[in-house]
Design brief:
The chain has eleven helices and 13 strands. It is an alpha/beta fold and 286 residues long. The longest helix is centred in the middle third of the chain and has 20 residues.
Amino acid sequence: MRRLVVFGCGYTARRFVALHGSAFDRVDVTSRSDETAARLTADGLAAHVFDGSGLTPALGEALRAATHVLVSAPPDAHGDPTLRGAGEALRAAGNLAWVGYLSTIGVYADAGGGWVDETTEPEADSERGARRIVVERDWLAFGRERSVPVQIFRLAGIYGPGRSQIDNLRAGTAKRLVKPGQVFNRIHVDDIAAALAAGIARPEAGPIVNVTDDEPAAPQDVVTYAARLIGVEAPPEQPFETASISEMARSFYSSNKRVANRVLREEFGVRLAYPTYREGIASLAE
């Protein structure tokens, strides 16, 4: 019996379950709040409340039977909540065959617009990225301890249905910020789902894989393209230095790099459905 347990059933993990959940005999998911767990249950998922402080009996039973575990919950100031609250149960899970951890390309330091890949040593220049590096190493150590394949998926900026520049334009919240030379990688959520499915099929691959598109691009170009597709006027360009944006948004612009996806293509065998933002945005515009 193939049983998947998902820690943190947010946008990306939820999409994976929707597209590939039928590959499992049972899927259990977690949420930090009763309210969100109730919504997940109403959508037909076996949902459990988990905030890193301990397991409910039902979640403990799910982990004892789990064959695959996907960790989408982010770290906090004290480390990884999944390892903290469920590590003991995971170490005792006799059927465990695979663990996937969703990380971020934010673990790589600023490269001045140059290329980085899976052989590049992670040296995050933000607290969020530094936390991810620690947790990545903790999960890889767990895999060695348990002799269980652990794959680390370093995700680029995620977009997809309900979460794209098209949605921002329609909501009137899109901005065309210009910082000369700045580029970002992106990845469509369906391509992330395909990468996870490929990892489960090839647990020996990796263990580090950058899940990114093929064309890092300037953020203002994506907004302009999306506006043209849906027939609206793009917002005016704004210099990044004087733009009114949140500190978190500003921090993303402090790192400029192009992230290669060789392992995804060559070892995982994934052919991206949306290799650049143009294919992805066009599919959403339809």
